[in-house]
Write a structure and sequence with these properties.
Layout: E1 25-26, H1 32-41, H2 46-57, H3 72-81, E2 82-83, E3 88-94, E4 100-105, E5 111-119, E6 122-126, E7 130-132, E8 147-150, H4 153-167, E9 179-182, H5 192-203, E10 215-219, H6 223-232, E11 236-240, H7 246-252, H8 261-273, E12 280-286, H9 294-304, E13 309-315, H10 329-341, E14 345-348, H11 373-392
Parallel strand pairs: 1-2, 6-9, 9-10, 10-11, 11-12, 12-13, 13-14
Antiparallel strand pairs: 3-4, 4-5, 5-6, 7-8
The structure holds S-adenosyl-L-homocysteine.
Length: 393
Amino acid sequence: MTGIALKLDPNAAQTVAPASSDARVNLFELDRVGLEGLFESLGEKRFRAHQVMKWIYHRHVTEFAEMTDLGKSLRNKLEAASVIRPPNILFEKDAADGVHKWLLGMDGGNAIEAVFIPDKGRGTLCVSSQVGCGLNCQFCSTATQGFNRNLSTAEIIGQVWVAARHLGNVPHHQRKLTNVVMMGMGEPLLNFENVVRAMSIMRDDLGLGLANKRVTLSTAGLVPMIDRLSEESDVSLAVSLHAPVDDLRTELVPLNKKYPIAELMAACQRYAAKRPRTSITFEYTLMKDVNDRPEHARALIKLMRKVPSKVNLIPFNPFTGTRFERSDEHAIRGFQKILLDAGVLTMVRRTRGDDIDAACGQLKGQVLDRTRRQAEFKRKLEQGSEGEQHAAA
Ligand code: SAH
């Protein structure tokens, strides 16, 4: 955590972004189609909407007065009807390895995190979709924060905009931000419409201009929503698998009880069938003596034969109070080798930004919890440390 003290007001908890006292529409809420609609309703030509998008996403301008190719009367009209309000940066920090993390204030005491990870020839932004998360995956620190609400489209694309501005990103020219992964806080498929709209701005030439395959949505496995995504978007899909058999997966990812592995793999097959040249990424967090044994790897191979797939092994990133440990290097290499020898394309996702708690599963933000999970987790932690004290006494 960042150590920032924020006032928590439990009464401020809501499931949707709270209405602002300013009734003007925030243009970050609208994708190209929405923006064209707004301009039409103002009696303006659609191409004006395109000019405004370029100002916002290519030049990072938020003041209509600076949009010099728009006439004064249009600028006044826009000012009366709309604002361009990016998220509020509460805090930002660089890690030793070039990773950059933002803590963005949302409302009341809520805050979410976004992380930029530079790598050879690419720069990936990890974006949050919810304040907290309700899925309660046992090895994820966001789960210990509980859940407050879905992020709006503006709050999702706003994270990308803040990062792009920080990086001086210019689409098609000098692009440092090359990839976006919906792998921050939250389950993106439980905030479907806002996430799909924000991803359409990421892929729009007038927005971030990222290719479909460079925008990845990661899900814990909401089967019906994977099918809906397949109809409505064309992004890359990543699935958080973490175990090759139902008993273990249900223990780690409780959602598996509702959508067990066979149903999940069938949904992945349907997604892949529509996109012949792409593969699905399966994320597998390696936890010592939990899911890292050779028999797990062999069972995983069988599943991977069902779909064009890649496996992304993520060495577990620890956080305060967790009962899990990272697999040792020997186990990680061994696991990878079994998969590689069977012809399954397998990468190990090396931990980045862990000196600023920016690694996978370490994003916590500040959540006004509506689920009592935070309190429960704290109680368990305290009981645990009392237990240790008793044991030591
Ligand atoms: N809810 C979505 C998006 C979160 S993505 C999903 O489940 O896919 C974050 C990725 O990091 C997921 O694969 C998640 O399972 C993994 N992860 C969570 N906690 C982790 C931890 N402590 N160490 C390593 N990976 C973790």
